[in-house]
Amino acid sequence: MSEDIYIRLLGPVQAERGHDPLDPGPARQRATLAVLASPAARPVPMGLLVDAVWGEEPPRHAEQSVYTYIAGLRRVFEPDRGRRAPSRLLSGTAGGYVLNVKPRQVDAQCFAELVDDARLSQRDGDDLRAVRLLDEALALWHGTALCGVAGPFAERERSRLELLRLTALEQR
Fold it and tell me: Under CATH, which architecture does the 5-102 domain have?
């Protein structure tokens, strides 16, 4: 796992290594990254990637395009990896791919965990801690979630995240 990678979905889809920005590539490659990062560290079947990026009418060569996007993401995240060397960050699985990052390496997952922790703090009567956690969670937002990414997955995920953001604002 690459501990220094951080992926942003709560605004334009972005990535960074340490504090250095990385260019996740063109729109559909960013969409592929967003699907793999939502939530991270779970296998995503090829069919789901195709459906998420193109919807019900993918092009004939959609799977080949996904392979190209995966290769592009591997070049972005692991520029020194040899051509045939296995990827530590973006692994192939039986019929799909997995992004090997921890939840704290994806802003949308950090956000959801902070909102959950705030809810528990409120339940336990610790309102000051709850407000602090909600402020921290809301500070992760940098515009519309998945900004610049089209497709059915992006629309669903954007709606889900926006609803969670509104819930956090109401709890605060």
Answer: Orthogonal Bundle (1.10)
